[in-house]
Every structure is written in structure tokens, then in C-alpha cells.
Amino acid sequence: MALPFLPGSSDSAQLGKERFHKSQILSISNGFAMLVGLEKPGIGGEPLVGQKITSKYSVYPKGEGRDRPSWVAFDKQVLCFEAYFRETVPNAKVETYRIRKCKIYFFLEDDTIQVVEPKSKNSGLPQGTLIHRHRIPLPPPNNDQFYNVFHFNINQDMVLYSRTFTVTNCDCFTKNFLIKLGVYLNEPAMVPDDPYSIRRQQIEESMNPFRPYERRNTLKQFLDFDGKVLRFHCLWDDTKNIFGDQRELILHYYLADDTIEVFEVIPPNSGREHVSKFLSRSKLPKTGAACEDYYRDSDLTVGGEVNIWGRKVIITDCDEFTKKYYSSKYGIEDFTPVQYKVPPAPKPPQPVPPYNGFGSEEDSLSSCQSLLPKRPQKDLRKFMEKDRYGLNSNMLNFHAKMMTTDPVDRERAFSISFYLSDDSMRVFERPQKNSGLLGGKFLKRQRIRKPGQELFKSEPFEYFTAQDLYVGAIVCLNGVNFQLLDADNYTLNYMEQHAEEFPRANTANIFSKLRSIPEGKQSEIRKFLSLSDPSNTGFIPYESFRGLMMGLDCGLTEHEVLVLARCFSQRQQPEVDVGLMLAVAQDFLRRKHFVNFPHLANIFMYNDRQKVGCLPTKEVRTICKAFPLPLPDSLQEGLLNRFADGDGIDYHAFVAGINWLEHPAPPVMPDDILKVSTRFDDGCSALKNINYSNLLKDIFNLSPNAGDPETAASM
Known about the structure:
Number of helices: 21
Mean pLDDT: 84
Radius of gyration: 53 Å
Largest sheet: 6 strands, antiparallel
Low-confidence stretches: 60-65, 706-715
């Protein structure tokens, strides 16, 4: 019994269907309504009656594993086929057709095809990519479909855009892939011979060049001479041409590859436009472009000519490296330069206007040298060499007194310091007890002009230098005359160590002055020295020695006598109590409000890796300088010497001795401070006895009593 034809009771194709949409077939293009959906499916995406829908995706199975799209499963997988096509050559005598080999690439991810023809030498054809990568339709009448993997096989013809390609072979990956798809592969085919290509190959093989290429190994030359360049100064005389003149050139010859480059020297305000190079770096032929004979280093000599593309260039000179190279390789010693320039006219003098009185002399001079005045430049090299560094203060200190008739000013004591870094001077007045004068800074640090100079003049001023200061000299500082009485030990040592800069501290000059004394006067000197030493000890007091030397008529100054005495002296330093030195050090630290003793002790303990309570003297001195410990250098050095035990210092005892908080010392008087301070700075005060016997032997080659019978009898 059949079911009634009612909704829900009949067998309908619409049962279970969920998609009932209609395809869009109308659209607007460039402002016009158009029918664009002739190939679109019907309701629900089902094809209409008699309609064939072209597939947009690959027909081969998807990749193994998960359900991945083809562009992921077959990414970067390409089938490669070898093929050729026959091209007809019309209106040609030698060839009627041409066989052109190419490669066909099939990209599995999107069924695209690319055809590439390998490039051959001197073919004269536009080779390379013949068909760019895209999907290629089948030939008519199936042009609504595209090539896929099943259309490819070996030894078959394929029509790509009306051009027939014959597939001859494929690579190993392509064979395995097609076999796995179940494609039966044909046997590989042979590529037919191209008559024209064979003829061209025979002609090339039968050619015998007159000058075959000879390979030269230039690697050794490059490794030996890389970075070595010969430099020549040249002249190109172009005066024969209209508006021509003499042109200066610089020729560089590179020994690494025998190339030459030329630069032109363009003088300022010449009116010529500056160019980067007169000749770019290349090998330079001797005669012309067709010549293979190039310039070598043996062809370049001073005074010779070089043909730079028709320009006769004369080599006038070369640098020092070039001279050494030619002297060592070719034995050439004559490098006389070619004179082609007129000697330059002497520059007219540019008088400097006189000093106007505003600012310093350097400031006034800089305003005359340029429209925009610049700050005067200091001698930075001298400052870096002579600036204070460590224990080297590079400062000369002299004790001086004022040269005046006033009895009060005559008793005043001054200290003059000269700074070697910038030739500046400073005058400090020492405080004296019950003098009625406060003391302190007498003249601030500055460069001081020598007296007797005109103020408003064009010539530069003369300033005091280190050579103008010596013991016994009288200097006028800003209208006040000072006599230098003494110098500290550092100053005397510095002047003696740099005797070439300080003639009055040069012992050779002093000895030459003494040797110029007549022999009769030398006998009197020996007799006086022997009488001054009744005990025949070989030593006399410094004052007696000084009186004798100053009385000689040989031009010795006070400073030269002092240097001579230091050379033959028996120096004795007065002993100073360690307790007094510690008391003075505590007084200095108390006035500087230094209380950071625990931190100083911790630094010493940190540097004491072995924990022995002792550090080297050099390391302790460095820590005290870096901390810093506010003590005078002379006092600090004296304390370190007293606490030194061999090569080490007990830093616990040193810190405890200067700690004025936990171990206060009794108060000190100003005389004690002055005594300790001058203990390490006196120059001639430490000179006691002079060894005159060594002086007579070294200077006069005489013994103290030789040739003096009266003195010998009295002795």
C-alpha cells in the first residue's frame, strides 16, 4: 500500500537538506549592472542541469597524516621535467630550425607551472623564464580546465599556449612521486641534435687564438704588497693649449696589483672645480687602449715622463717610502726633485698692534688674529707633562726675603712657589710670632712679567721662567724686590736632575769654571782648605767652604756653590721625635676635622689579604693618597718611614698613632709645627761638612797636602 502524497509522507530530495541559498549573479562594474554568475551553481550550491563546475583545487590525494590543505602538505615540493621545443627560423641561410632545451616546473601546492630555459653563451636569444609561474589552461576545446599532475608523463608532448613541448626526462623525486600516484612512466626520450649549435661548437673548437690566455698567479704579489703604495708628485704642462696652465698631480702606484690612480692638487682660489679623481684606479697602458704593455714600477722614475691617455706628465718628486723602495730594489740613489716652481715671494710682515690694556696680552692678540676672537689656547702638552702627579709636585719652592731699607719688612719671611705646568708664581708670607704681621697669601698665583718692559707695545711680554729662579737671585715681582735665600730639597733635586734646563745646577759647568782657575790660585785654595781642617779629617764646615767659593774670581753664584757643596757633602738630618711628629699630624687632622679613622682601618684590613697586620710601604702610601689623608706630603712620608719595618708597615700602629679621638697627643706649639715641617724641606740647612779632599781630587787632581811642605811640616 502506497503512502499518500502528503507533506512528510513522500520521498523527496529536499529531505535532510540544510542549504537553500541562491548564488549572486548580478553585480555592478564601473557603474554598469552586469550578469557575472553564468558559471555559478544553483540553489544550495548544487549545479544546474547540464552545468559543469571546474574544480579550483588539486585532484591528487591530500597529504598523509592529518587533514591538511595542499598548500601546507606539499609546500616547497616541485616536480621538475626536462623538455625541448622546436622553433622555426625563417629567412636564414645557415639554420632552418632550432632546438631549444628548457625545464618545466610543476608546483604541487597550487598546480602552477613555470617554464625556464637555461642561458647559453653568445646565443643572441632572450633566454631565462619563458612562462612565469601560474596555472596554465588545457588546449581547446578543454580550455576551461587546467593542467594537473596527471597530465604529465615522460616522452609525450604538451601544448602550452600553442607551443608544443616534448618532455624527455625528469628527476628522481618526480619519478618516485608519479609512481606512488599510480602513473605509468614512459621511457626517457632523446633530444634531437641542433645543426646550428653543433656547427657553432665545431667552429669554436677549431679556433686557435694568436695570444692565448696565460693565467698569472697574483695572490703572492697581493699578499706581499697589500697596503703598500708608491707616491709621486707630478706636473702636467698644459700651457700650449688655450687657457691652459701647469697642473700639479699626485700619482699613486699600488704594488699589490700594478694599478695607478691620479689625483689633482687644486690650490685654493684657483677657480677650478674640485673633482674626486683625475684618473680612476686601473692599469695604465703606455700607448693607447689597444696596447697591452702597461706601466710597471720600473717605468716610474723621478724626472721621467708618463703618458696618461695622451697627456705628457713629468714626475717631479716622490715620498720617503718610494725612495727606500727604489733604493732597495733597483739600487737608485739619485732622487733630485725637478724644480718647476718659482720661489715664493716673501710674505709681507703683518705688524701686530700694540697691547691695548684690556684683558691679558693673549686676549688682546686673539682679537687681532680673527674677526671672531677665540679663547687663547694653553700648552696642553706641557700641562700634562708638568702637572702634579703622585709625589711629584712639579713645583719649585724658594725661601726669600724682601730687599728694602725698612727694618720691619727686612725681617719678613716669604715662600715663593713656581708652577712648572703653566709658568705661574705664588708668594706666601710665613707668619712670625710677635711680628705684628698676619702673614698668609701675599701674591696670588699668576704669570709675572719681568720688570723694565713697556706696557703698550707690539712685542710679546717676557715672563719669569724657571731658569730665572735660583738661590741668590734677586727678582722683582710687581715692583717688590725679593732675594731667594734657599730652596727645599725637592727643588734642588729637580734642578740637578734636569741640569740641561737649569745651567746653574749643571755640575759640568761648575767644574769647568773651577778648572779655569790658575794653578797658583789652586795651590792657595788647597792651602786654605788644609788650614781649615787642623785635625786632617778631610772635611770642613759648609760656611767656611761657602766663604772660600764665593771669594774666588770665577763667576760662581750662590746656587752653584750650593750644588757643589751638595755634590761633596756629608749630609746629616736632625733627628725628630716620633711623638712630636704624631702630635703635629694629629693637630693637622684636628684642624681639617678628619674623624674617619675606622673607615681607613677597614680599607687597610681589606687590602691585607693574608691578615698579617702589615702592608707594603708603597701600597700604604697609595691608600693614604687615595683616601685622602689630609697631611702634608713631607710629614706623611716621614711618618711612613718611621713606621716602616723592612718592606712593610704596621698599619694598626699607624692608624692608632694619628687617631686624635682615641689617642690624643699633647698640644703642640707653632714652633714645633714649623720645626717638623721644615725638617723634610730644608735645602742647605742640612749641609754640615764638606769633603774637600774628594773635591780636590775630582776637580784639580790634587791631594790635600801634596806639594805643600809648610803644611806637611805643621801637620
